[in-house]
Each structure stands twice: as structure tokens, then as C-alpha cells.
């Protein structure tokens, strides 16, 4: 047990006791709080002091302390008359996060494919500490998704911090970009001469898609938008050079990020088009999972629908290959021709 604590910190000790030990189903009385102060903080105080500090926390309004009231009838010591009074009891900390919200956040960390294991464990501990002792989150029967057979970029969180600073200050960054080799390790991307390629980028925003983090930016040599997997970036540095103004980057002014993400389901570069394809009705759920509500369906009979969606050309081309045996691209003609050629190339691999 530590030495006696300063009583001017009593309200913070009470707040900590409530945060760690209470919720709506497990409130504490003033007497129970008083005992905790003595056992955990070696602080002997009277009930009035506990009450006064609780009222300070409640009146402040920013500590999320809830309570209930009870009516008490007691005789007046001087007159003997019965007097009615209201007492506060049943104190608990009303967590900003519900248990289900914390589980969702922890599951997102747990099953992320980009976060290294050491960072996962550290984040899970921090998230769990946001709740109280009654919150149960066990990983004993869960197998972490950890790509043990391949190297994970341990610079991820540092890279995110640097990018956030660069975006906030409107500055360029430079970095190396990495790809996996046959040894399942990350290697710097090289140019045609065999030298390590350095990227100078104008960063604008970061997004999450499919459990991966992407940088939406402009490669300084060109005037269009580019995407880079943040977990593939290393050796990042902020430059003193201001980034390119948004008006000089095609498609950046007035960018609707939510709409942009709907059109770039696999985060390929290139233009967006209006694509149409025929498919069986039982694929509607899959299509909505892929493209969200950004689709239109027309019943064409025989259990089939015509689907129309605005989407990045390279994304829909890739998606069409995934469902090649079930869907038929009908428009535009350029996309139809590319998908036909993809089928021909695939058949050649099997000597058909």
C-alpha cells in the first residue's frame, strides 16, 4: 500500500474508483466508496467529504457520473419533528462506450490484417482499460489473424502519425514503397535501373477499406489521384515543400470521400464509369456488400436482373473476374471487350 494520498485529489480517486468498479448494474454507495478510498488509497475520510466530492464531480458535468435518489424521513434533533430529506446513492460511471461498442472496436483490432501482433496486444489492453472490471473480453478461444508466414510492416502507426501531420500542415512527404518477394518478406520497390525507387507524394487524406489503410494522394509527377497501401510504406519523411494545390489535381476539388470509396471497392486507380451487367437475383446481397446502395436493379425475368452501377473501371473489371461464371458485363463496350480478353487470357493458362 502506498503512503497517504493528498486529500485534494480525493475527487479524482473517487472518479477512478467509479470508472473501474461500477456500471448501471453495479453501482456503489457512499459508504462503499469511503471503504475503497481507505483500502486502495490509504485515505481515511468521513461521509460528508465523500458526498461533497461526489457532488463536485456530478455538478461538473463532464465525468459521466450517474446516481439515484432515496427519500429519507428522520426526526429533527431539536424539535423531534419528522423531516423529509433526499439522499444520493447508487453512484456509477456511465461509460462513453457500451460493452458491445468496445467489443466491436476490439474485434476490429483483433482481426486486422495490417496491424502487427505487438501493436494489437497493446491496443487491446488500452481498449479494455476503457471499461470496468465487469467487462469480459477473452481471446483464449480466438486465434489471432497474424500472418505468421509473412512479414508485417512495423512502421504502420508511425507512418500514420507522419501522414496526419503532413496532411494537417499541407506538406509533401517522401517514402519508399514495398512489395513482398518469394521469401515472404517486404522489399523496397525498385525502378527499371534496379535502384530503390523514392516516391515524392502530395498527401490529402487517409481512408480504410476492407481492413486496410490507404493514402489518397497525388504522385507529384502527374495530375491525377493515386492510392498507396499505408502498411506498405516505409522510411517516410515530411518535406518542407508545400503540397500541390487541390485545384491542380484532377478529381480532388469537391471530392466526396464516401462516394469515392463506393466507386473504388478495390482501390485501383483510373476513371469511374457507368457499368451494367446481368446476373441471377441470388447475387443481389453480394452486389450490395460490394457496392453498397450505389446500384440500381431491373428485373429482366427468368430469375435474373440487370444491374447498373457507377464504379472505377479497373475495380469492376477485377470484380467481374471474381464472378466470371455468374455475371455478364453488357455495357460499356470497352469494358465488355476487356472482360472478354481477360477470359481468353485465363483460358490460355489452362491450354484451352
Provide the fold topology.
Layout: H1 10-21, H2 30-41, H3 47-60, E1 65-75, E2 82-93, H4 99-110, H5 117-128, H6 156-169, E3 171-180, E4 186-188, E5 198-209, E6 212-219, E7 226-229, E8 233-242, H7 257-263, E9 272-280, H8 284-291, E10 295-301, E11 304-312, H9 313-322, E12 328-331, H10 333-349
Antiparallel strand pairs: 1-2, 3-4, 3-5, 3-8, 5-6, 6-7, 9-11, 9-12, 10-11
Helix pairs in contact: 1-2, 1-3, 4-5, 9-10
Written description of the protein model:
This protein is of the alpha+beta class and about 350 residues long. It has four domains: about 5-95, Arc Repressor Mutant, subunit A (Orthogonal Bundle); about 95-145, no CATH class; about 165-255, no CATH class; about 270-350, Alpha-Beta Plaits, CATH 3.30.70. Helix content is about 35%, strand content about 30%. It is built from ten helices and twelve strands. The strands form three sheets. Strands 3, 4, 5, 6, 7 and 8 form a six-stranded antiparallel sheet that branches. Strands 10-11-9-12 form a four-stranded antiparallel sheet. A two-stranded antiparallel sheet has the order 1-2. It is elongated and about 100 Å long.
Amino acid at each position: 500500500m502506498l503512503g497517504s494520498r493528498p486529500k485534494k485529489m480525493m475527487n479524482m480517486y473517487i472518479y477512478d474508483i467509479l470508472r473501474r468498479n461500477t456500471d448501471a448494474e453495479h453501482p456503489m454507495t457512499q459508504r462503499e466508496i469511503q471503504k475503497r478510498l481507505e483500502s486502495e488509497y490509504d485515505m481515511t475520510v468521513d461521509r460528508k467529504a465523500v458526498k461533497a466530492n461526489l457532488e463536485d464531480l456530478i455538478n461538473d458535468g463532464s465525468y459521466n457520473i450517474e446516481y439515484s435518489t432515496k427519500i429519507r424521513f428522520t426526526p429533527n434533533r431539536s424539535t423531534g419533528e419528522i423531516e423529509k430529506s433526499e439522499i444520493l446513492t447508487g453512484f456509477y460511471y456511465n461509460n462513453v462506450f457500451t460493452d458491445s461498442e468496445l467489443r466491436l472496436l476490439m474485434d476490429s483490432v483483433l482481426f486486422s490484417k495490417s496491424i502487427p501482433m505487438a501493436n494489437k496486444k497493446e491496443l487491446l489492453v488500452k481498449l479494455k482499460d476503457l471499461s470496468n472490471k465487469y467487462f469480459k473480453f477473452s481471446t483464449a478461444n480466438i486465434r489471432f489473424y497474424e500472418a505468421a508466414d509473412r512479414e508485417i510492416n512495423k512502421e504502420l502507426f508511425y507512418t500514420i502519425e507522419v501522414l496526419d501531420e503532413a496532411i494537417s500542415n499541407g506538406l509533401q512527404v517522401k517514402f519508399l514503397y514495398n512489395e513482398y518477394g518469394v521469401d515472404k518478406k517486404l522489399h523496397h520497390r525498385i525502378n527499371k535501373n534496379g535502384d530503390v525507387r523514392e516516391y515524392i507524394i502530395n498527401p490529402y487524406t487517409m481512408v480504410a477499406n476492407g481492413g486496410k489503410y490507404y493514402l489518397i494522394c497525388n504522385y507529384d509527377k502527374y495530375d491525377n489521384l493515386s492510392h498507396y497501401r499505408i502498411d506498405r510504406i516505409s522510411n517516410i519523411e515530411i518535406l518542407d515543400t508545400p503540397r500541390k494545390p487541390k485545384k491542380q489535381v484532377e478529381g480532388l476539388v469537391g471530392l466526396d470521400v464516401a462516394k469515392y470509396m463506393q466507386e473504388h471497392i478495390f482501390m485501383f486507380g483510373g476513371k469511374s464509369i457507368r457499368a451494367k451487367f446481368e446476373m441471377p437475383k441470388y447475387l443481389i446481397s453480394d452486389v450490395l456488400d460490394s457496392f453498397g446502395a450505389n446500384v440500381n436493379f431491373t428485373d429482366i425475368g427468368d430469375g435474373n436482373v440487370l444491374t447498373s452501377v457507377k464504379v472505377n473501371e479497373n475495380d469492376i473489371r477485377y470484380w467481374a473476374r471474381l464472378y466470371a461464371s455468374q455475371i455478364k458485363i453488357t455495357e460499356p463496350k470497352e469494358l465488355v471487350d476487356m472482360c472478354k480478353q481477360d477470359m481468353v487470357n485465363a483460358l490460355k493458362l489452362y491450354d484451352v
